[in-house]
Design goal:
By secondary structure, the chain is of the alpha/beta class. The protein has two domains: 2-184 and 373-389, Rossmann fold (3-Layer(aba) Sandwich); 198-368, Glycogen Phosphorylase B (Rossmann fold), CATH 3.40.50.2000. Helices cover 43% and strands 16% of the residues. It is built from 16 helices and 14 strands. The protein has an eight-stranded parallel β-sheet with strand order 1-4-3-2-5-6-7-8, with helices on both faces. Strands 11-10-9-12-13-14 form a six-stranded parallel β-sheet, with helices on both faces. Helix 9 (227-238) runs parallel beside helix 10, helix 9 packs across helix 14 and helix 12 crosses helix 15. The longest helix has 17 residues, at 137-153. It is globular. It starts with a strand and ends with a helix. It comes from uncultured Acidimicrobiales bacterium.
């Protein structure tokens, strides 16, 4: 049962932390941080270790009720972003008496600043501070102010990698405990072998006009993902592989016109496929069937596509000195951020195949195996308990 009033936020089993998780910013087609929230909700609901309430947009209750049938859904947030940002500060404050001792979890950088009671915030990366040129100016102004304020008011802070946690401590010097909790991966979907075999993967890809051999990137097309550099690196190797295509899977974000310009300048537009946002079942097929999976952004808080590529046994190329490189030690080629010549060399070496590439592919699933959403959720439950104790 879903409802549009917040009274359910104070009910729950004795001994189970009561958690109000704000899912109001998650789009219908999630990527990156949105996938983290969706999978966290699924895992928390499945484990039954918390009394979970989800605070959703007014038009989005059915999605969350289907995802977490045992949770209460308070569908109270406006749909439009400016109104939702104002709501984030006003509604929880007005409802603080009814929230009681529920832990409020803001999973996307921010918190209702005046809310009394235990609060947890997740910070995914600090690029709004370190590389503001990668973001819209209005977002930079908003999130730099709100991340500082939320970090100072939180009772506990979650970061998605140790690198992000270290940078947050250095930049913001928070007084609340900071926990580095890596993401997980759905090992039923992201696995070296497809249910139904390789033909099932090829059929899914054929429906999008994609067939091997191809190099794949998947993620939001935005400045920090360094996709224009990937286009130029592909151009450097394409003449030696006349049947090879480049697949850029993901929706265009802010700044995606730079990708358009790079494709136009490459002279290879007919060999660069842009299927847009792809359904969840297609992503593993892309990774498993690829000749090289390239996820080499300038910087990243975690880099979930790299972990998913490892789980599929895909031949991964990623960026050195990042969380992706930390996760994939020995199972991926790494290149310096923004080094297009090195990226082209890595693609060429991966396309050549041989024992080293086969060894990296075989190491990937073993490295990814410990990282599950259940493990991620269990670590969050400990953070919720810590916030309650403060």
């Amino acid at each position: 049962m879903h409802q549009d009033r917040p009274a359910a936020l104070v009910t729950g089993d004795v001994g189970a932390p009561r958690v109000a998780l704000d899912v109001s910013a998650i789009p219908a087609r999630p990527a990156g941080a949105g996938v983290y929230v969706v999978e966290l909700v699924r895992a928390l609901a499945g484990a039954g270790a918390v009394d979970l309430s989800l605070v959703a947009r007014r038009d989005d209750a059915s999605r969350w009720q289907a995802l977490a049938p045992g949770a209460e859904v308070a569908a109270v947030a406006p749909g439009r972003r400016p109104l939702r940002l104002a709501w984030e500060q006003a509604w929880p404050l007005a409802s603080s008496a009814r929230l009681g001792r529920a832990v409020w979890h803001g999973p996307h950088y921010t918190l209702p600043l005046l809310l009394r009671g235990p609060k947890v915030v997740t910070v995914h990366d600090l690029t709004f501070f370190d590389n503001p040129e990668w973001h819209e100016r209005a977002k930079v102004a908003y999130f730099t102010r709100m991340i500082r304020a939320s970090g100072s008011r939180a009772d506990a802070i979650v970061c998605v990698s140790h690198r992000t946690a270290d940078r947050l401590r250095e930049l913001l010097a928070p007084t609340a405990p900071v926990s580095a909790i890596p993401h997980g991966v759905d090992h039923e979907r992201f696995a070296p072998e497809a249910v139904g075999g390789p033909d099932r993967d090829l059929a899914l890809l054929a429906g999008l006009g994609i067939r091997p051999p191809f190099v794949v990137f998947y993620g939001t097309l935005e400045p920090r993902k360094a996709v224009p550099g990937l286009v130029r690196a592909f151009s450097a190797v394409a003449s030696g592989h006349p049947d090879l295509t480049l697949v850029l899977a993901g929706r265009p974000g802010w700044g995606a016109q730079e990708v358009d310009a790079a494709i136009a300048a490459s002279g290879l537009a007919e060999r660069i496929l842009r299927p847009g946002y792809v359904d969840a079942e297609v992503v593993p097929a892309l990774l498993r069937s690829s000749s090289a999976a390239v996820y080499a952004p300038f910087a990243e808080g975690f880099g979930l596509p790299a972990l998913e590529a490892l789980a599929c046994g895909a031949p991964l190329i990623t960026t050195e000195a990042t969380p992706m490189a930390d996760l994939s030690a020995g199972a991926a080629l790494t290149v310096p951020p923004g080094d297009e010549a090195a990226l082209a060399e890595a693609i060429e070496a991966t396309l050549a195949g041989g024992p080293e590439v086969a060894a990296r592919r075989s190491r990937g699933p073993a490295l990814a195996a410990p990282w599950t959403w259940a493990r991620c959720a269990a670590s969050h439950v400990e953070v919720y308990r810590r916030a309650l104790s403060r």
